[in-house]
């Protein structure tokens, strides 16, 4: 939809009106036949039609182009009233700058910034509303440090609130301790399994060393026996030599 023509000051050229909604062009596009439309209007039209609503020539979304520069300049120079005129705004400015003005207009209806509040007020009255809003929050004046809503002033109980917060902190602490405990147990189990594996490996290595030592001792005994045998043979040979 375009801009309501009633908002404009002075004459508006017929060529600057949307061929569909007949209001002043908003975010305009132009067909090859040079008829102009609001972007939203022509896109909605082409969902159900495939031609220009003015002369019935074939039109496709891919054929739409931006408005000619001179027409765009004429459009931007048009003067119109702020949409908040009914609330008291008397601003008249160019179409080119109207969006910027209306985003900052003191007469714009904006929502209250307090969570839970559904009231909409004029921007210029927002501070006054926030001062009395039942959803405004503040720190308890009695020193408990709890943030409370103004609507909860009469129900607020410092001791009860602190007890509740203490219980929450205690529950959180218990959960953290349990998590730390489980983590430590998991680490100890992992280290225990690692130590058992290392112990098994060491025992196997000890068995292997004992086996090697046993073989070495057996070899040593065999060598000593062979040496004794050799010595005895030498002694016997020496006796036989002496007898000869």
TrEMBL record:
Keyword NAD included in the entry's annotation: no
Record protein name field: RNF41 ligase
Domain RING-type span(s) in chain numbering: 18-56
Organism (species): Oreotrochilus melanogaster
Keywords for the protein's UniProt record, in alphabetical order: Coiled coil, Ligase, Metal-binding, Zinc, Zinc-finger
Keyword Coiled coil among record annotations: yes
GO molecular function per UniProt: ligase activity; zinc ion binding
Lineage: Eukaryota, Metazoa, Chordata, Craniata, Vertebrata
Spans through the membrane: none
SMART domains: RING
Alphabetical list of InterPro entries matching this protein: Znf_RING, Znf_RING/FYVE/PHD, Znf_RING_CS, Znf_TRAF
